[in-house]
Design goal:
Alpha-Beta Plaits, four-stranded antiparallel beta sheet, alpha+beta, 98 residues, two-stranded antiparallel sheet
Length: 98
């Protein structure tokens, strides 16, 4: 179960969702919602309210001198909603203007 969470996903859209209480993680393909909720609660000491998972299809790319087609692997992501009073400090960004 220690290997459920791979990494946090920090994109423009995911940082906007943090303000609504949703945090996004890349997870292993075999992981299910209950494993993800337990892993987030154990690792970050928070209470998970909701988990949504989705399978992201790998893209096809052209590489090399002959521009051969290769495909990236499929991966899975999870969006986790916490109680309104809780936050994960790993995702906190500076919102002050520069």
């Amino acid at each position: 179960m220690n290997n459920v969470l791979i990494s946090p996903i920090i994109t423009e859209k995911s940082t906007q969702l943090i303000q609504k209480g949703w945090y996004t993680f890349a997870i292993h393909l075999e992981s299910n919602k209950t494993e993800v909720a337990k892993a987030v609660e154990d690792q970050f000491k928070v209470h998970v309210v909701d988990v949504r998972t989705t399978l992201v299809k790998g893209k096809t790319k052209r590489v090399g001198k002959r521009r051969a087609l290769t495909s990236q692997s499929n991966w899975k992501k999870a969006m986790v909603r916490l109680k309104p009073t809780e936050k994960i400090e790993l995702f906190q960004v500076d919102s002050s203007p520069k």
